[in-house]
Amino acid sequence: MLSAAERGTWTGVWLIRLSRLRECIGTYSTLTCGKIDRLCFLLSAAIRIHSLCIPTDLNAVLVHDPSWRWLRLTRRGRCRVGCGLVIWLRNAGRYCVGLDLKSRIYKPPGPKTQLEETSFMFPALTQSLQTKKRIIIMRHFKASLLGALITNGMAAQGLTLDEICDVAYIQSALPIVFAGIVFDNSSISVAAQNYTSGSTSYNYCNLTMAYGHAGLNDTILVNYWLPEPASFSNRYLSTGGGGPAINSGLQASAAALPYGAVGGITDGGFGGFASNFNTDGVDVIANGTLNWQTVISFGYRAHNELVTIGKALTTNVYAVANGTKLYAYYEGCSEGGREGMSQIQRYSDFDGVVIGAPAFRYAHQQTNHMFSAIAEQTIGYVPPPCELAYIVNATIAACDPLDGRTDGVVARTDLCKLNYNISVLVGETYSCSAAEAAGRTSASPAQNGTITQEAIDVCQTILDGLMTSDGRQAYFSWQPSASFNDATSSSYDNATNTWGLPSVGLAAAFIAREMEEREVTSISTENVTYDVLRDWMNEGMQKFYSSLQTTWPDLSTYQAAGGKIIHYHGESDDSIPAASSAYYYENVANVMFPNTSYNASHEALAEFYRFFLVPGAGHCSTNALQPNGPFPLNPLDDLIAWVEQGVIPETLNATVASGDYAGDQPLCSWPLRPTWDASGTQNCQFDQSSIDSWHYELGAFDFPVY
Q1: Active site residue 637
Q2: Residue 309, CB half-sphere, CA atoms under 13 Å: how many?
C-alpha cells in the first residue's frame, strides 16, 4: 500500500493486492469482498467511495486532459476516448494512472514540470506474471477529486442527465478516429428535455451535431436522443425515413426512449432534417449533373455513419465497459425499410432490424408508380374514383370469408387471386356523393354509373403487373383488396365530363431527376408504353445497382455476425406491392441455401430472418378499407426478445383495434398462411398453390432481378 506520505494530497488512494490474476484477464467489475482479482484503486470522496479496476492484460492508461472533464481507459498507451471506465473530475489538473507491462512510463502531453511521478515495484505482479511491472502514478492537482463512477454493463453510477447533457462532456465523448470523417465540435448543441407518451414521461438529452468528409466540403447533421443515465439499458436505435426523406422527423427518436435506448436520425447531408433527397442542389447539382455523393449517402452511407458514430458515442457517454454488450437496433418502414435493408446487405453493425414494406428494388419500385396511369392511357379509359372504389370494396367483401372468418379483412389475398374474378362486377351500379367521391373534396362531382368493362380491363391489367409488349413479366403489382391508389384521378374536366390521368409524382421525380438528371419533378406520359417503363427499370437498376437498388440477396455476413431480421408487409399495401417483399425473401432463401428443398431452405433462413404478411394492412399502417385488420404495433419488442433472450418469433404479435375480434392476433411466419376453422381457432398452414401465386419470373430482363 502507499504510505501516508505517498498519498499526500490524494483524496484517499490505496493499492489493492492482486491475486488469481490469470482468471480475471480482460474483465471489468466493481470490487467484491473475497474476490480481489484485479488491480484496483479506491478513490474516496467526501460523499462516496468507489473502486476503479484496471484489467491486467494490457498496457492500460487513464488520461485526463485539462480540456476534458473525464478520464477514460485507453489501450496500448494511446490517448483516445472510448473504453468504458471513467472518473469524474472537476477543476482537476493533468492526471494519469498507467499499468505499464513493458516497464515503459507513459506520460500525457504537456510540460513535464506539471507532473510528479511516484514509481514503485509491486511484488505480487512479479510473482504472478514472472516479469517486472511497475505502476506509475502521475499527479498535479489538489484534493479536487469529487467521485469516481464505475460501470458494470449499465450506466455509470451517479451520473445525471445534466452531467451528460453538456457540450464539453459530449466533445470529450466523441469518437476521435473515423477514417474520412471530420467532426465539427463547434456545431454541438444539447438540451435536456422531456417527452411524454400517454402517462409515461421520459427525460433525455437532445443532441445535434455536424460532421463532414475529408476533401468533400460537405455537412451531415445527426441528432441523438440520449435517455437519462438511470434509464439507459445498453441499447441504441436508428430509425429511417419515408418517400424522399431519410428520416421521419426529430420526434422519431422518441421510439427509443421506452427501451432505454439512444435514438438516432440523420439528415443525410441534404441541408437539414426536414430536407428531402429529391431537391435541387441535393440530388441534382445542376441540369446534367447528378450528385453522386448524395446518392451514395441516401443509398447507404449516411445510415452506416449514423449507427457507427451513434454506437461509439453511446459507449463513451454512458461509459459502457469493455466486454459489456451494447445492443444496436434499426426500425423503419417504406423508404426507411429500404434504408434498413441497405445496412444488413453491407454491414453487421445492427444486432437486429425491423423492416417494414421496404421500397427496395428502387428503380423498379419508383417507376412502377407510373404503371397504373400508363395502363389507363393504353386502354383509353380513366375510371371515375367511385368506380375504382366500388371494385375494391366488392373484392374485399367477396374475398373476406375465404380465410374461414368473415371479419371485413382479406387475410388470404392469394386465395382471392386464385378464386375471384372481378369481371363479375360488370354492370353493377355504383354511386358516390360529391363529399364521398373516394376521399375527394366537395369540389369533386357526384359520381353515378355502372361498372364498365373498360374499368375491369384497367383494374385487371394493374393486378396482373407490368408486362412487356411481347408478354414477358417486368414487375408485379398490388394484391387484390388493395386500393387502386396510383390509378385514382384527382382531376375532373367539367367541359368534357371526363377524368384526367392520375398524378405520377414519385415516378416522375425519379425518372426526371435520377435517371435524366434534370432539376424538374414532372415528365410527360406521352409516348410512354409498357416497354418504356421496363426500359427505365432496366436502366435504373444498372445505374443505381450499388447504391439505391438495395436487393443484394446474400446476407451471410449479417447472419454470421448473429444479426436478426423481422420483416413485415401489409398484404393490402397500395403503394409497395406485398409481392415485392415475398419475392426478395424467396430470392434470399434460394441464394443462401442452394441445392436444398424449399422447406429446408426456408427453415434455415428462418433461423435469423422472419417475414410476416399483415392481413388487410395498408402501407406501413392499418387500412381504412379494412379497419378490423391486425397490425404489429411494437415489433421492436419481439426483436429485442429474440436478440437478447433468444425468444424466436414463430409468430409476430399484432393487435386488432376494432370489431368483433378486437385484441391480439398473431401473424403467421412466411411461408405459412392464416386460416380459421369452424371453432374460430386460427391456424398457420402451408398451402403450396397459394405460395405459388406469390412467385414471379421477371423474364422481361436478361439477367437476374432479386
Answers
A1: no
A2: 31
Cell reading at 333: 418502414
Q: Please pick, among 172, 334, 342, 572, the residue that the annotation labels catalytic.
A: 334
In which residue are the cell numbers 388487410 written?
616
Supply the mean pLDDT for the chain: 81
Tell me which of 619, 638, 669, 693 is the catalytic residue.
619
Higher-pLDDT residue of 653 and 107 is: 653
Task: Name every residue whose Cβ is closer than 8 Å to that of residue 474 and which is 6 or more positions away in sequence.
Answer: 465, 466, 467, 468, 530, 533, 534, 537, 698, 700, 701
pLDDT at position 440 is 45
Please determine, for residue 431, whether its predicted confidence score (pLDDT) is greater than 60.
yes
Q: What is residue 175's predicted lDDT score, i.e. its pLDDT?
A: 76
Give the Cα separation of 501 and 374 in Å (integer).
Answer: 9
Rg, the chain, Cα only: 30
Which of 3.40.50, 3.40.470, 2.40.128, 1.10.3470 is the CATH number of 167-356?
3.40.50
| Candidate list 573, 574, 601, 638, residue with the active-site label | 573
Q: Residue 573 catalytic?
A: yes
User: In the prediction, which pLDDT does 576 show?
Assistant: 98
For the cut 80, the answer to whether the pLDDT of residue 297 exceeds it is: yes
Determine the pLDDT at residue 123. Answer: 31
Domain segments of the chain as ranges: 4-150, 167-356, 367-543
Annotation marks residue 602 as catalytic: no
Could you identify the residue written with the cell 399484432?
654
Residue 490: per-residue pLDDT = 87
